[in-house]
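Quick question, first post here. What does this chain look like in 3D?
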Amino acid sequence: MSIWRPIGPRLIREVDFLYQRGKSRILFGAAATLVFLAMMMIVWMIIWNLKQTKTVELVVNGNSEMIETKVTYVQDLLAEQGITITPHDLITAPLTDKLQHHDRIEIEYAVPVTIEVDNQSSQMFTTVKTVGQLIKQVGIQLGEFDVVQPGLQEQLKPGDYVRVSRIEKRLESETEIIPYEIITKQDSTISKGKEKVVQEGQPGLVEHTYERVYADGELVEERLVDTKVQTEAVNRIVAIGTRSDVVILSASSPDVQTVTKDGITFGVKKVIEATLTAYDPGEESTGKTEDHPQYGITYTGTKVKEGRTAAVDPKVIPLGWWIYIEGYGFRRAEDKGSGVKGNWVDIYFDSHEIAENFGKKKGVVYIIGPEHPLGE
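> Answer (accepted):
Ran it through. Tokens below.
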């Protein structure tokens, strides 16, 4: 008997049923898989997008702002925000660093300032906030008395001019010469008109100590703090003679020397330096008018004569004696006057104009004696 049986209609229906049922399950499973994959893709895209967006805190010159960004690098963030920096500016992260979620990026813009120290000025850019921080940044060592303008605590502003004045205080000494004084005292043992130095003068020396303040090498303040006398001055003492040496000349007085004047040689009793003046017979000189009975008459009774007559002090030159006046020749002491005292000779001239213009001079007078050298 054969084991194979003819397939009947029932069997065919069962097989078809099973086929259709399996087919439906396969189609449903494929659709479900597609839906699942699509949902996973959406979730993945959401997660990826969330990972790409970062929250970054950007602080510019102290002003903070929270920024949502998808860029990767710091330099891209600055470009995105329209921020430009220079090599002088300060940024807390390298431009090539990758951004991380919740990063904090700080930027300080540098400001231009000028700083002057030790008489030299330079321009620079800085991001520090105060003058004191600038001084530290530049590396300036401040002395005890140095002055900084503006002050160290002042806030820096663009274009500020910062000056460091080097202040130095010194104690300096100087010497000064003390001039000596001249002290005079009368001395009756010395002839009148003569002097004698009793003690020579010596200048003294005094030391002054000053506290001086220099700003950048220039003296700006000075104060005297001490004075010491190193050497006392020694005064010069001069004795002034008061003794009257009256020498009474007479015809028997010996000649002190022999001289030759105007080709004439003669002996002299005394040589003096005298004051020379001139007079005429008029009223201004003698107090006598032309109608006066003694007009033109000398004290010795002679008639005045130009080239011969002279007025003297009889205590110095005896009346009636001849004298020789250097530059004026021989004259005879025939007259005297109230103003003619001591070593004084008043020469007679006929002309009032000549006498008036003569003035007062110094001259050497040779006292000869009662006789003229030529016997006149």
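The chain has five helices and 22 strands.
The two ends are 225 Å apart (CA to CA).
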